[in-house]
Amino acid sequence: MRALLLTTVILGMLPLVLLQPHVGVLLFYWISLMNPHRLAWGFASDFQYAFIVALVTIAAWLFSKERKAIPLTSPTILLGLLWLWMSWTTLNALSPAQAYLKWELVSKILLMTFVTIPIMQSRTRLHALIWVIVGSLGYYGVKGGGFSIQTAGVYQVVGPPTTFIGDNNAMALALDMVLPLMWYLRLASRSILIRQGLLLAIGLTALAVVTTYSRGGLIGLAIVVAAALARSRHRLVLGLGVVAMVVAMQSFLPGQWFDRMKSISTYEADASSQIRLSMWKMAVEIARDRPFLGGGFKVFIDPAVYPRYNPDMPDFHDVHSIYFEMLGEHGVVGFALFLALGMATLWQLTWIRRQTRKREELRWAYDMASMIFVSIVGYAVAGAFLTLATFDLYYLLVGVTVALRQTVQACLKDQPAARSSDDLSMPATWSNAEAPISTQEGR
Questions:
Q1: Can you give the pLDDT at residue 316?
Q2: d(CA 237, CA 187)
């Protein structure tokens, strides 16, 4: 029944995608991030819904009147160069068959990132996309938080199997990244009911992060909260909420949770931490031997490379770090491009904040840029302990950043000194928390 319903909904929306390509972008990322087909049974669990939606979306976009040009900004140039470099390292991979399969998946992610940038350049569309991200991943946060309350936090919160967010560590990272976006939606909503609902969702999602039992996720959560406090316009409300949650969790969480978190400060005696350090050394050894090529995708799960680069490891493990993952798989050049892409994206977000800080009609863009900044910082910190260098949400946020800057630039060009009348603006008498989202599309 679930499979039939899901198939009917997705295929039934394809005619609308042909008429409105931006609907295809929203549908694609709902499938890609939430993986609703993994919650169904039968044929649906392995059906290529995202691939079909992507093909229809791209075809509709190419034959539509939507803008086609991809702006040449530092993030788009670096993203393109990183894609080319990963293609080159795949051709020279130590495990070519496995590397190609991963390259194919990553290429689909990056292609849709580039398609998203020109299509989503308006306030309404970007806001809708943030809602899709929050709804897709927030579902697991709210569900996981509720499950933790029911079970007193005894069990780990995990994601749907065979997905990017399938294990507890990946789920923690994804939820860390979605929390700031929830706060943005709360700031942007006029409805008291929606704002209160999002506040509840934030609390449950934060609890879900904690009860993934992911140490990297906990560190990421702390950084996300600190960064949000630094960049939010409502520090007092947010700060009081954080204090209340910390006090409540201390009396709620079981002793086994505290025992696991204590190993953060005693990593020398923790077996998993020692394995992780060994894998990081392996990444360095691969980069030393192949500085310009690395080992290619999936090199860390190939038993054949261990006698050469990590002979003391009895079996293979993930490298558990986005940075060492890029270094070992794609060499020094790939690692440098990956770092440069992150820094360029943060710089773009800083530019948006600077340009919109004192413009009431662009306060929505200021808040969106601020919370995306926090989300990417969360990825950069928690990702230091997780193997998710090709996580689709991160690259989507890079694309959203570029689209947001283009949208803001268009508004600044058309309305250099005052409010505009299209969906980029809002009356100066509204506060940001009260400003509704217009249903009109921006230019």
A1: 75
A2: 12
**Of 201, 173, 161, 174, the residue nearest 185 (C-alpha):** 201
Model confidence pLDDT, tens digit, residues 61-103: 999 989 999 999 999 999 999 999 999 999 999 989 899 999 9
Nearest to 133 by CA among 100, 168, 174, 92: 174
pLDDT confidence of residue 149: 87
- Which pair of structure tokens corresponds to residue 223? 């950084």
Tokens 């770090």 map to which residue?
321
Looking at the predicted structure, is the pLDDT value of residue 427 above 60? Answer: no
Supply 324's token pair: 């060492």
CB–CB of 293/95 below 8 Å? no
CA dist 392 → 99, 165, 185, 205 (Å): 17, 10, 21, 20
- Scored b (16 or more CB within 10 A) or e, 47-79 reads bebbebbbebbbebbeeeebeeebbebebbebb
Separation CA 146–CA 208 (nearest Å): 8
Question: Cα angle at 142 between 139 and 148, to 5 degrees?
Answer: 130
Do the beta carbons of residue 131 and residue 27 sit within 8 Å? no
Q: How far apart are CA 363 and CA 253, in angstroms?
A: 38
Q: Which secondary structure element, helix H or strand E, spans residue 144, and what is its range?
A: helix 123-150
Helices and strands of the chain, counted as H and E runs: 16, 0
Say how far apart CA 245 and CA 248 lie, in whole Å. 5
- Give me the count of residues in the chain: 443
What single string gives the DSSP state of each residue in 36-89?
GGGGS-GGGGG--HHHHHHHHHHHHHHTSSS--PPP--HHHHHHHHHHHHHHHH
Q: What is the pTM of this model?
A: 0.87
The tens digit of pLDDT for each residue in 287-320 reads 999 999 999 999 998 888 988 998 888 777 788 8
* Mean local confidence (pLDDT), 221-227: 83
Helix, strand, or coil (residue 436): coil
- Res 127: pLDDT: 96
Contact (CB, 8 A) for 378 and 223: yes
Three-state SS annotation for 343-379: HHHHHHHHHHHHHHCCCHHHHHHHHHHHHHHHHHHHH
Distance between start and end Cα atoms, the chain: 42
Q: What is the dihedral of CA 347, 349, 354, 355, to 10 degrees?
A: 120
